[in-house]
Every structure is written in C-alpha cells, then in structure tokens.
Amino acid sequence: MITRRKLIAGNWKMNIMLSEGLKLANSIDEYINSQESPDCDLLICPTALILSDLSEKLINSSIAVGGQNCHAEISGAYTGEISASMLKNSGASYVILGHSERRHGLNETDNMVQLKVTAAQNAGLNAIVCIGETENERETNQTIAVLTKQLENSLPSDSSILNGTNTIIAYEPVWAIGSGKTPTNDQITEVHNHIRECLDKIIGEQANRIRILYGGSMKPDNAASILELDNVDGGLIGGASLNAKDFCAIVSAID
Question: Is 99 a catalytic residue?
Fold first, then answer.
C-alpha cells in the first residue's frame, strides 16, 4: 500500500510585504523546529516579489517555497509575466496553477493551464493543479462533470510524464474559497475519490502516488475532520495561511 505524505501549502495570494512575510515565515519555522517531527511537508507561496528573499531565509528549513503562477513560455516578449525557470531560479520548488481566481477572474482556460503545467514540470517544479466548481454548477449537479473536464484538459497530454513528484491536484470549490462555507465531509470524500479514479484512468500506476489537496475555507476548527478523510492528502490554505497561529494549528491537526 502506498502512503502519501501530507502537504500543507499556504497560498498568500496578493498579500504581505517583505518584512511581514519574513516575520510570518520565521514564526512558522520556529513552530516547526519546536516539534519533534511534523508528519507532513510544508509549503508557502508568497508573491513573486518576495519569493527569493523568503527562499534564502528558509534555505536550511523544512519549509519549501513556491510560486502562485507562471507563464507557459520559457522567455520572450511577455511584459509583466514570470517564467517557470525564473521561479525555479528564485528558489521555488512548487507553483500553483489554474487557481479559480485566475480561471474565473482572468479567464484562464483548461488549455492555458495545461501549457503552464507542462512548462512548470519541464523547469523542474512540482505543479499544484487546481480544479473546482462554482456554486451554480454544484446546485445544478454538474460538479463531477466539471471537475472531470478540468482535470482531463488541464494535465499535459503526455500522461507518462506525470508522477507523485511533479504533480499535485488541489480541489477548491469556487463557492467555498474565502466564503467561510465548506462542503460536507461526504461531499469532499465523493469528489476526492472521483479525482483519484480519474487520475487512475489518465495516468495509471502513478495515480496512487499523486497527492490530492483540499482547499476552500480550511481552518483550525475544521482541518482535523477534513484531513482524516480518504484521499485528502493535505490542504491548500488561503486566509488561514496569513496567520502563523492558524497555519500551525492546521499543521498540528494532522495525526
């Protein structure tokens, strides 16, 4: 039986300046060092402007650093964009791609996400591929169909390159992000089991090695019950990752 090590990832989004970010990262690092051995991997994804500084700060830490997005091209005339290799060179080992705030706010398509995932993996980054349904899609019983389409079309067409060290899936119901609402545990289990089944069809043997994170208003008071569910291999944390006490409490919720 394959055991997948849980991952708790903090998505800082467009928040936190350098001095505050260094302080927050230091607080999390101090907590980790005070524990015997947290039974999970840890990741923070700050804004690109402070990623390099945080990576240098955490170079001897067990906390990894990641980006929040990347461009699909290696380089070129793409004003304001950041390539996957630039993130890698700045100290990132992960990158979040296809987040609903980009899919719905910036009209990113599955195909655009697929190209970014390919670029990220080619640069040696672990791609956290986000999928999720809107409230209307949930209410009209389209959740499974929507997630299946996003998953199938957001991953590279050459499935043989996908494995547990370069691919992570994050289920983030759009209607739960930042709203304080969360699906029921049964709903989360249904979706994560379905994602695992889809991965098995797409990837085959490597599917059981790929971690599936839950995101969408995970907080200290609901983390333990969510993290113990089948096929929930960690969390992609938004608001709670901006507070060291809350983020560390979620880490502590892992058995």
Answer: yes
